[in-house]
Design brief:
Blueprint: H1 20-39, E1 57-62, H2 67-83, E2 88-93, H3 97-105, E3 112-116, E4 122-127, E5 131-133, E6 136-138
Parallel strand pairs: 1-2
Antiparallel strand pairs: 1-3, 3-4, 5-6
Length: about 140
């Protein structure tokens, strides 16, 4: 009678164990995700009731299908972090009920930005994106 020996090999890692490199990899991925999240620009506020509450404000009249709106949003995103201590940035979106109400009440046009004083007085309206140069403004 022949007997067969069954030889069972075991893995060096148990099935429930996680390798050190996997843990390090996860920490790196999570670290990069946190870093990327903190570097993203914060969204413009849609709390339009804060206009005229003591701090000067710029309200972007935004329509995602309007090229001027997209250009203005890009421009304000580029400078916002330099000025947010002195002025609040808001967006009145043509797709939101609060945005629509604001646009109607202020007779605003999509693709424009309205500048307000701290007490809510309309100071100026910028229609479309403007490039600032040393000699002044150009469209």
């Amino acid at each position: 009678m022949t007997t067969h020996k069954i030889h069972i090999t075991t893995n060096q890692h148990q099935s429930g164990a996680v390798s050190k490199s996997v843990i390090i990899g996860l920490f790196i991925i999570v670290g990069f995700a946190i870093l990327a999240w903190t570097l993203l620009p914060t969204a413009f506020s849609t709390d339009l009731d804060r206009v005229g509450q003591g701090k000067p404000a710029i309200v972007l009249i935004y329509d995602m299908e309007n090229g001027n709106s997209l250009d203005l949003m890009k421009g304000y995103n580029a400078i916002r972090h330099d000025y947010e201590h002195w002025v609040d940035f808001f967006v009145a979106d043509v797709e939101s009920p609060k945005g629509i109400a604001f646009i109607r009440a202020h007779k605003a046009t999509p693709g424009s930005a309205i500048y307000y004083s701290g007490d809510g007085e309309k100071l100026m309206v910028l229609y479309g994106a403007v490039r600032l140069t040393r000699g002044g403004c150009s469209g």
